Amino acid sequence: DIHDTSFLYGAYLQMTALAAVPKFGVKDGGTEISVYGTNFRWEDNLHCRFGNDRKVDATVVGSNIVKCVTPKWNVAASVELAVVSDNGNIAMLDDEFEFYTPLHLL
Q: pTM score, two decimals?
């Protein structure tokens, strides 16, 4: 009996996140942001993670850009922002994302 014991292994470069534009948005959510970095892959299921656990879907525009829409945040705050994949890769930005309270004019 001959058994095929071969397997396919792929090695990929670690993704990095360098900048978010804009770096701020209203705490009501809905701000579209672009995260610039390297080695983003269409094949990976990517998310933008705000703080420790608030994830939203990310759209890969190219290997250097992903876009996502900010979630609603309860209070004005600066939070960590990262691009994460379902397979455990994390690309953390050095700068935090700023949720702010919008000014309402009377």
A: 0.85
